[in-house]
Amino acid sequence: MEDVSKSQAALKGLCPRCRQGKIFKKPFYSPTGFDEMYELCPHCGLRYEIEPGYFIGAMYVSYAISGGVALVLGFLIFYLGGDPDGWVYASIIAPVMVVIAPVNFRISRVIWLHYVAGIKYVKGL
Ligand SMILES: [Zn+2]
């Protein structure tokens, strides 16, 4: 079996333990169900939500990502737009936040599982 690196597995949204099973049931662009996760890894049976409220921590990751995106956008608008009125910032940044929300939701959970949770990769599971 081909070895999948940690970053490849994270990018593809695969289980942190076996790097084979998917974490999410549907693609991120699915309007209904982008947030639906498998309870257990379909390949190795790892329970993704180790304890109730386990993914609350992923909210901090999500907050950092959206804060970073908003900050970068704010600087871009400031320098490229010549510091326009406040409503210009809001009317550009707010819709972008809504559009990236599904991706952000998933990325933060994947980062949480792969890089924060301390789940060890078990080869050949
Ligand atoms: Zn697995």
TrEMBL record:
Keywords: Membrane, Transmembrane, Transmembrane helix
TM spans (from-to): 54-80, 86-105
One Pfam family here: DUF983
Superkingdom of the organism of origin: Bacteria
Protein name (Swiss-Prot/TrEMBL): DUF983 domain-containing protein
Organism of provenance: Spirosoma fluviale
